[in-house]
Amino acid sequence: MSDIPTDPMLGRLIDGRYEVRSRIARGGMATVYLATDLRLERRVALKIMHGHLADDADFRSRFIQEARSAARLAHPNVVNVFDQGQDADMAYLVMEYLPGITLRDLLKDYGRLTPEQTLDILEAVLSGLAAAHKAGIVHRDVKPENVLLADDGRIKISDFGLARASNNNTATGQALLGTIAYLSPELVTRGVADARSDIYALGIMTFEMLTGEQPYVGDAPMQIAYQHANDTVPMPSSKVPSIPQELDELVLWATARDPEQRPRDARVMLDQLLDVGSMLRPAVAGTKTMVMPRGGQTSGVLLGAPVSPLTAEAETQILGAATLLPTGPGASNDLVLPGGGTVANGAVLAKKTRGRKARGYWLFALVLFLATVIGGTGWYFGSGPGSEVAVPSLVSSTPEDAAARLLELGLVAEPGSVYSATIPEGLVTGTEPGAGTRLGQDSVVQVIVSLGLQPITLPALAGLSQGDAEDTITGLAAVVGTVDPIFSADVEAGVVIAASKESDGADVSAGGDYFEGLTVNLVVSLGAIPAVAGESVEDATAILADKGLLVTRGEESYDDSVPEGDVIRGSAPEGTVRAGATITLTISRGPEPVEVPRNVVGLSWTEAKPLLEASGLKLDYIPFADAPGASNFFTVMKLEPGEGQLVPAGSTIKISFTA
């Protein structure tokens, strides 16, 4: 609607250098704009931290950390960072602008991708992540929204706003960072993140690219987090049977719940991905065209899309074709090459990676293995894994029952607690280590008990803009309910008038102490109803319609100040007025008419003149009638218009006399 205020940043000059052109996207920490660098005359992406976060030292430090983290990387698959600074109370970040779409947009349009398209995107993303991991940087927010697909075929990973040094892997006690759908089990349970957490998120993203859906869904974020911590990610082929087994193994390897069972960093996974690609790409039916961008970049593969003007002159390479035999019970898992030969493929990816450096030493490994088996059998069943027990699932049990259950298994219970929106207060939300973890006798297991909903303090919402109020509510793990726009002559358009709890309607405009999950309904001002007095009926109707109001024609009334046919006033219905209400217009009939005085004819001019002048009408008569002594000799014979007639105010009456 036209009453919603425009973004005040548009057209603004930041730090005397960057002119804001348009808004690209809005996130939890910042808004990204398209801007022009007036000094270098180029387009850039300008990321400006939200104003309500500027006073939070932790958010500001994390924002600056993004610039430092990304600036340490110089890689064709990582979005470049050019500058970082502060303008008044705004912290900003200047990045490379890439016209195109995100991987999320591509998934929304096509649902799921082919294995070949998935391999192309994974190769580019892993190349960028490998550079980050080598520099000691953990991204911590790998998801389709942060994978950019440029119009010229380049694929880059962006948004290192949650990144931090990979050796800083202790829990901070703060809320978990990153998107819940891609959080690794160790981030959910312990708040610990390292390079293997990025690998887990990339495995979830691979599952989504291959199947068109995420492996875990739920009505609440905590339900999804619980599945990440306690369940095993299913194979993509369970959703799409045509997916090759090699990609199943790649996803299961990357999403192992135990970080030790995953690739240690992106370089390890990239090496294995290249092996998988060399086996799967010949299996594409027909041929595949790969567009190579100028400059020797090898990651710019167009995903089956038409060649854009930016790549029209690039070289084209035709790859060979082969057939991938069906998978399933009894089916071979070998690749048939164009010449008729086969290539075996049966090793699990994790074991293949560990064996990369062991090729050529298999005889030595065999001897060592036999010696280990003979000497280790007794250890295994004495004090090794053979004597270990699995931690049971204790979710929703009482702490007493949980402790007794662990005691039966020879484990020691240790109390812990956490706020939970899904498990009632006083019941167990989970354990650390998680269910299924095998432990030796007398090992300590932390039993984590729910403290119920986390308390929050809601600040005053009345007087904030609608956007700031919604950001404040969601930032406190509360929920924005209905937004009711109403007209108000006292509150500026777009500003919150009142707020209330959805559950019982209690007023929370001034804030107060509540709990997470609170749903808050807002009443937002549309501004004052436009004044239409003095406008024509057509203009008044158009003005009110522009505000979403209907118009009806009411009574007509005389008015000395408003011309005939124009609007005297617009009347709104009683009570609260919303868009769609009907405004009643009162129309002017012009000035009220005046009656020509009666019983004047036959009077002397001395008697008639005061009566006529009192009517407010103009008098037209011979001037001699006013001569001294003459008025008593003149008698009114006729009035035009005549006595009793209605004439417009200020009209002229012609008077005839007899002497």
From TrEMBL:
EC number: 2.7.11.1
Entries under InterPro entries matching the protein: Kinase-like_dom_sf, PASTA_dom, Prot_kinase_dom, Ser/Thr_kinase_AS
Residue span(s) of domain Protein kinase: 18-274
GO molecular function, one term: ATP binding
Keywords, sorted A to Z: ATP-binding, Kinase, Membrane, Nucleotide-binding, Serine/threonine-protein kinase, Transferase, Transmembrane, Transmembrane helix
Presence of the UniProt keyword Transmembrane helix in the record: yes
Catalytic reaction(s) noted: L-seryl-[protein] + ATP = O-phospho-L-seryl-[protein] + ADP + H(+); L-threonyl-[protein] + ATP = O-phospho-L-threonyl-[protein] + ADP + H(+)
TM region positions: 361-382
SMART domains: PASTA (SM00740), S_TKc (SM00220)
Keyword Isomerase found: no
Annotated coiled-coil segments of the chain: none
One record GO biological process: negative regulation of fatty acid biosynthetic process
Superkingdom: Bacteria
Ranges where the PASTA domain occurs: 386-451, 523-589, 590-659
Name assigned to this protein: non-specific serine/threonine protein kinase
